[in-house]
Amino acid sequence: MKGLTILNATLSRRRQIWLTLLLGTVSATGPLAIDLYLPALPQMKAQFMTSASLMQLSITSCLVGLALGQLIAGPLSDQHGRKKPLIIGFIVFGLVSLAIAFVHSIALLIALRFLQGIAGATGQVLARAVARDLFTGKKLTRFYAMLNTVNGVFPIIAPIIGGFMIRYVDWQAVFILLAVIGLAIALAVTWGLRESLPVDQRQSGGYSVAFVAMGKLIVQPAFWPLILATGLVYGALFSYISASTFVFQTGFGLPPQTFSLLYAFNGLGIVVGSNLPGRLAKRYTNRQQLTGLLIGAMAVSAILLVSLLFPANVWLVIGLVLLLVILIGALLTLTVTVIMDRATQNAGGASAVIGLAQNACGGIASPLAGMSGSSYAAMASMLFVCSTGAYALVRYQGHHMD
């Protein structure tokens, strides 16, 4: 801990800004791999001659890869440092993205998306771990908020770029762009990121020891309810992400470009929400914020469910979804901060468990949210179930920690 304090104190303001931009971009693997091609889903569905559920399975397979990849990258980084796994992960991410641009089979697309997720997982898990290497306490909360702000820019610009691209080029160009981005990030990490985990603080004894140490975190009463809670919050986010393109484009008839702007505006809502915990920290504890925001998420999702009983109103749905993504942005910052701040050792393993829970829940929620096709019934149901489940877990964890 002393080493962390010294390292924290030596970071200049300029260095912190660079770290925020670089790690925010690195951690945006998920949004880049998913949000950029969302506007192209209807086009891809037609070209592959498949169903909406199978196209959504390409989202799920990427999320499953992102989840499993965390279990590889996290423990390995606790052993070998953060930088090398990041470089290797993004080189593979770029090459797999390029391969996807040449597939003609939905089965092969789904398989390659799984590999793309495994490679991209290094960005998500190690950005959190690097931040934990450098910061603790309120500084960690503020840095995660800044990371989420930078990260939140990508859901804003990615669908706009994707929607613009498919007006002029086929969907394959989206994955060529992802390949370029992956290889560019690998170069940026190579030349612009210092190793944050000193050799004397690394896990020894091989991968199995690091993996067991990560597993021990899961069974602790202080961790597992919060780990599942952050997973459910992420599940709520991906219930919206995976279903929104069909709900708003097919169900409500919005054109792809209008949907892209709407999706970008909701991405801005996530950015706003991510910064709420830092602003509320002076008046409320993390526990109070978690409880209050989850109650708000349950209430808004309940209203969205009730609205199904009345004639569909696109503006009402848009407004309620915006409120929900703001709350989700705040809840993701809070849950991750609380968990990582408790992880005084094995930050890579702790980050991996967070990523596993988040992407696993996101992968499960995505196809379920699309079960009602162009209706938002399944999406609304999943949003309510996820927020209610997260609230129950946070209450359970608080009760057993008192």
From TrEMBL:
Name of this chain's protein: Bcr/CflA family efflux transporter
One GO-annotated biological process of the protein: xenobiotic detoxification by transmembrane export across the plasma membrane
Compartment annotation: Cell membrane
Pfam families noted in UniProt: MFS_1 (PF07690)
Keyword Repeat: no
Regions crossing the membrane: 17-34, 54-74, 86-108, 114-131, 143-166, 172-193, 222-241, 261-278, 290-310, 316-340, 352-370, 376-394
UniProt signal peptide: none
Annotated ranges, domain Major facilitator superfamily (MFS) profile: 19-398
PROSITE patterns: MFS
Molecular function as annotated in GO: xenobiotic transmembrane transporter activity
CDD domains: MFS_MdfA_MDR_like (cd17320)
Keywords: Cell membrane, Membrane, Transmembrane, Transmembrane helix, Transport
Cellular component terms per the entry's GO annotation: plasma membrane
Entry's family note: Belongs to the major facilitator superfamily. Bcr/CmlA family.
Membrane-topology annotation of the record: Multi-pass membrane protein
Gene3D superfamilies: Multidrug resistance protein D
